[in-house]
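Sequence, please.
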């Protein structure tokens, strides 16, 4: 698909036009998704929960809507948001034996 032509504004600035398809997020194929799931399972099997969460959170960037300002969050604070609910679950005797479903966010 070819990009739409640029339109010149009277002041000399350009507006780059793109089709809506070009703005859509990229998706994974079924094979890529299965590979990501297997990699996630391997990480969970070979690391502690805290290490696995750090691996999964590494390089994560917020998704912003048009016009939304970027919010800065300290890495430790972001990690606590994920780990605290898990640690609370483990502190309850009945939930400490619960099995976790393994799924990949990608």
């Amino acid at each position: 698909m070819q990009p739409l032509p640029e339109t010149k504004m009277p002041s000399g600035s350009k507006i780059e036009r793109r089709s809506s398809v070009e703005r859509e997020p990229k998706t994974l194929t079924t094979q890529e998704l299965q590979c990501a799931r297997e990699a996630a399972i391997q990480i969970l099997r070979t690391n502690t929960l805290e290490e696995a969460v750090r691996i999964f959170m590494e390089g994560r960037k917020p998704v912003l809507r048009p016009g939304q300002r970027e919010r800065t969050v300290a890495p430790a604070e972001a990690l606590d948001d994920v780990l605290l609910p898990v640690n609370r679950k483990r502190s309850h005797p009945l939930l400490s034996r619960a099995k976790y479903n393994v799924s990949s966010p990608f």
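Confidence is low (pLDDT under 50) at residues 87-98.
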